[in-house]
Write the structure tokens for this entry.
Amino acid sequence: MSSNTVRLNVEQASYAYSAGERQAPLFTLEATSFQARSRELVAVLGPNASGKSKLLRLIAGTLKPLSGRVELDGFHTSQLEARTRAQRIAVVQQESPILFPLRAWEYVLQGRHPYGRTFHFESEEDFAIVENALEQVGAKHVAERWMDKISGGEKQRVVVARALAQQPLLLLLDEPTLHLDIGAQVELLERLRHLAVRNHHTVVVVTHELNLAAAFADQVVLLHKGKCLKVGPPAEVYRRELLEQVYEAPLEVEYSPEGRPRVSIRGGKEIGLGSTPAQVV
Amino acid sequence: MRRMTFRRVLWVCTLQAVVLLAVVVVALKLGAVPISVTDLVYSLGRVAIGHDSQLPSQFQVIVFGLRLPRIILAIFVGAALSVAGAGYQALLRNPLADPYVLGVSGGAALGAICSLIFAPEIPLVTPAAAFVGATLTITAVYFLGRRQGQLDGSTLLLGGVIVASFLQAVIMFLMTTLAGRELRGTSFWLMGDLSTPSPEEIGWVFAVGLAVSIGAIYSTSADLNLMLGGENEAIHLGVNVKRVKLVVYVAASVLTGLAVSVSGAIGYVGLLVPHALRWLVGSDYRILIPASALGGAIVVVVADTLARTIAAPTEFPVGAMTAMAGAPVFIYLLRRRMR
């Protein structure tokens, strides 16, 4: 398949749920549309409770859209059989609790599950894929370590490696930078960018980090109170009035020489930070 | 990377089978009437080549009429309870889950007692009623253990304990209305007891039900590994969560129902055995399920042998033995979890 065909097609997809049948919907995601190709990185932005995670679950196919469609290579993601879906879509969730101790390589090996059969033990090929996945995220050195004994940044890499072991078309991440320091955040996004290009994944990242999204995303989807306000390259979406309205804070948008926007807090005096604008990260 | 292979599973199971055989031989030897190992091996050998008629009749009655059926029952019950415990632990994502702690054994016991009171004439009604009791209890405990749509470990255990004590109260009520009839027998059975021989047709139902249920749980073992990480994670990794839950809940309830209907509520086996084996062979369910079946058999045979020899000729209920060993382990695990 050539790289400029649309892989992920979200078309007027909406979602709502209510406590009872006769009650008004508690929360809705109004019709949202965007398209993504292979090797593209899409960032989904918006304040808390704007519908970001709902959109991610619609894309992942674990929620069925109320109306509209979410298609991956022409298949409705919510209609795919569980195994098939896991072969095409990998999801990195916010928290991945581990009940019994697991070594990092065992964790990554879980990513091969959708390719296994009932009484199946992993093959040489599966182990080669695991090693490769660990290498791609730069976590080969922790392969033999226990998952609960490695640092947050290393753990996040191993989690991404498990997603890579699924060999997905679509890689979805829900706030992957949440507990990482800034160095690890940048490193993760750089790596995702690189992996998207190298392995032809389509990557969708839900994040709060405006500046990381601006620096690494090809497209940004901006959500606010369940509405999709704008879709486009960061330079188009990052308009001062729009961001100020969404985030309800005085903001400044500057542009780097390459045309990537950068957001900072405006009017440091008002919030007692002196005259230099503090950077929002 | 130490890989999980079929060879490793086979190797561990063979080792356990050897241990089980040794334990069975010792269990046959020990008892109120002492029998020397040479006699035992000699006679077992004779039976194996078909010369059993030449055995002294007293010997034959004690070893093959009394001890062997009881040991076989212990093997079945131990395997059933351990695999049920391991299954519940994965589904409920709680290493402390056990048919007894969760009240499932109590539910099965209540079902069994009701069947004895209301319809003792129907064949196989006791195991069927025990299964129904087990299924209803695990369903109730599952919903009690949910908080805001999520399973909560402490709430679940507390719910199980409360359900167990409620069922205990109902059982007590039913027993007093029985007024003296078989009261001692029933209370002994409630504590977990292997001394009452089961009719032969129950034996066959038991063997088939055990094989099918353990097989069903084993067929989901790769899925159960992922369920330990949470249902959402498992869905994203291609597990058909609804199907796995249905299969394992039903199969684990069948196992508990069968075990309770023949041996009463033997506690903590489903907790002790999978826990010890996780430590020995790892927490991969593809090895843990067969290892738990064999390990449970070993533990219950040992516990029952101790129960009938420690203060011979008096016998303890085997459930008292497993509870004395299991409760401290439960507390230890609970404390460690809270740290």
Summary: Chain A is about 30% helix and 25% strand. Residues 271-275 of chain A have pLDDT under 50 and may be disordered. The first strand of chain A starts at residue 6 and ends at 17. The interface with chain B takes residues 60, 62, 82-87, 89-91, 93, 96-102, 105, 110-111, 113-114, 116, 118-122, 127, 130, 143-144, 166 of chain A (CB under 8 Å).
